[in-house]
Amino acid sequence: MKDIRKRIRIAVIGGSRPGRQAVDNAYEVGRLIARAGAVVVCGGLGGVMEAACRGAREEGGLVVGILPGGSTADANPWVDVPIATGLGYTRNALVVMNADAVIAVDGEYGTLSEIAYGKIHGKKVVGLGTWEVKGLVAATTPDEAVRLALEGLSG
Question: Are residues 91 and 68 in contact, defined by beta-carbon separation less than 8 angstroms?
Fold first, then answer.
């Protein structure tokens, strides 16, 4: 297994109450990230985060969950490395800062803040059925989203 410090990390961000299409997209995004040998970083809770984690883990990938609360027990069951922060939504900055690129699937205002952090810090942010924001790279399928996120990265 490749040294974890050298593996590409892709943050998957999105809503905690997504519709069926967003759940399916997030699952496939997680699966494809793991298949590429990259690490999934997310907020570690439910919805899009859980679907991406499940997809990655079922593909044999590694999942890091950066949690808003003070307990690692809050992580969804697919998270390998839960990190409790006690920071609430402020943890969104940590999710983005611990990734080489970001894929936003669906989402509400928490996702919008993560997109903004990504752009502020010069990260590539790919959107799949999410906010339309200047500088966001739009994708129409999970395959395209992961390909665009990985483009130009080396791990």
Answer: yes
CA 100-19-12 angle, to 5 degrees, is 10
- Please count the structural domains in the chain: 1
In a domain, 155, yes or no: no
Domain extent at residue 101: 7-150
Q: Are 41 and 10 in contact (CB under 8 A)?
A: yes
Residue 124 sits in a domain whose CATH number is 3.40.50.450
Which residue stretches of the chain have pLDDT < 50? none
- The whole-number pLDDT of residue 132 equals 94
3-state secondary structure of 1: coil
Hey, what are 125's tokens? 């942010």
Residue 1 belongs to some domain of the structure: no
Q: How far, in whole angstroms, is CA 119 from its chain's centroid? A: 15
Using CA atoms, how far apart are residues 57 and 48, in angstroms rounded to an integer? 14
